[in-house]
Design goal:
By secondary structure, the chain is an alpha/beta fold. It contains ten helices and 13 strands. Helix content is 38%, strand content 21%.
Length: 342
């Protein structure tokens, strides 16, 4: 039960990195400098959302023989800072330029209007309507439904938990799908729910300590499977689950396979996948081939844009859990189950 997710290269931290190799693709249609990638809160090294984007960036650079520059966010930055970051990439000749995360929406809208010949992409936002912008979004509720099924089948206490990074509509989709999936297995299951912060600026996506504290609280309350949609903060959730010897469910990337989480991996039941890397790669490919994607591009279970990672042999050994998740996936793809978004 896998989704085609771009393999993650080792991701170190840093404010920016540049591959200045500027080469035309073999097709001869591309004359840009390469791919520009601007990270969301948490930056590269989160083993989740941003690192998934980085993986797609690296794969595209290698396959299409183009350069690229990826740039880290700054603490407490404004929309103007984001605009300046994107415009700097545009002036340097990068194409496409991708903002990783909904927080880039105002900046992408402004920069795209100033540079109509460059293709811009944004992850997790569908509000920008422009001929040179691709809105790359996902049915997160579908993969979260599978996480809920897995959690409800794996729990020994009929008591599970959800931890969201920030209390916003995007993360509500994760919770809604998770709750519905769990209740499809056991309508009476107890579900702990907590959001770490009200706004991204308060660190909900970038504070492992907040995630760890929240998970400790849910586990102490009786939850023995905890699902997190919290970016970098999710590392703290996984750490707490491993220390208490209960299951964690990862998000966005296959967190069982992340080197930085290796010491906790035995307690990562699976991960609700969002193929951010594939979206980055697909946009780069479209630009290099001279047929840039634009408008809403939405990934779902059927297309492989979302899914559930089954890398952990312990998950595969839980045959009833795996079978239930497989059936749920088939039902969603067939349309016999419709997953709620709130």
């Amino acid at each position: 039960m896998t989704v085609a997710v771009v393999a993650l290269a080792a991701a170190g931290c840093g404010k920016s990195s540049t591959d200045s190799t500027s080469s035309d693709s073999e097709s001869g249609k591309y004359s840009g400098k390469g791919i520009g990638l601007a990270y969301d809160i948490g930056g590269k090294g989160d083993q989740s959302f941003n690192d998934a984007a980085y993986a797609g960036f690296e794969k595209a650079k290698t396959e299409f023989k183009v350069g690229g520059q990826d740039v880290e966010p700054q603490d407490g930055e404004s929309d103007a800072d984001k605009v300046q970051r994107l415009e700097t990439l545009a002036k340097a000749g990068y194409n496409p330029i991708i903002g990783v995360g909904f927080a880039y929406a105002p900046a992408v809208k402004e920069a795209a209007a100033k540079y109509p010949k460059i293709t811009f992409g944004i992850i997790d936002d569908a509000t920008i309507k422009a001929d040179n912008v691709a809105d790359m979004v996902f049915h997160e509720e579908q993969s979260s439904y599978l996480a809920g099924v897995a959690a409800a089948k794996a729990t020994k206490k009929n008591h599970i938990g959800f931890i969201g990074g920030v209390d916003i509509p995007l993360i509500h989709k994760f919770e809604a799908g998770f709750d519905q999936g769990a209740k499809s297995v056991n309508p009476n299951i107890k579900i702990e729910s907590q959001y770490l912060t009200q706004t991204p600026q308060e660190g909900g996506f970038s504070s492992p300590d907040k995630g760890e504290n929240a998970a400790n609280g849910q586990i102490e309350a009786g939850a023995d499977v905890v699902y997190q949609a919290a970016g970098l903060s999710g590392q703290g959730v996984i750490k707490a689950a491993a220390e208490h010897k209960v299951w964690a469910i990862g998000v966005d990337s296959d967190q069982y396979a992340q080197a930085a989480l290796a010491k906790y991996k035995d307690y990562i039941l699976g991960s609700a996948l969002k193929n951010v890397g594939g979206a980055v790669y697909d946009l780069a490919k479209s630009v290099v081939e001279g047929k840039p994607l634009k408008g809403e591009v939405r990934g779902d279970l059927k297309s492989g844009g979302v899914g559930f990672a089954d890398s952990n042999p312990k998950y595969k050994a839980l045959t009833d859990v795996a079978a239930a998740v497989d059936k749920a996936k088939a039902d969603i793809i067939a349309g016999t189950v419709t997953v709620k978004t709130e």
